[in-house]
Fold:
Amino acid sequence: MVTPDVYLAFGVSGAVQHLVGMRDSRTIVAINRDRGADLCRVADVVVEGDAVAVAEALMDHLEHERNRGA
Structure:
């Protein structure tokens, strides 16, 4: 069981065991092509899209922000 402030789920469908393990997270962000996935139903924020493409875009943005602050 985990209880992070922010839980990012990239391409996770939301099997029952998984949902039970992370349900106490403060904010759940689901990134998935299937907006009807079980995890999307319990998420606070849903990004509908390809998990890999979203992850790459997020990493690029974070890298840009880090370099901007240097």
Summary: Residues 6-68 form a domain with the Rossmann fold fold (CATH 3.40.50.1220).
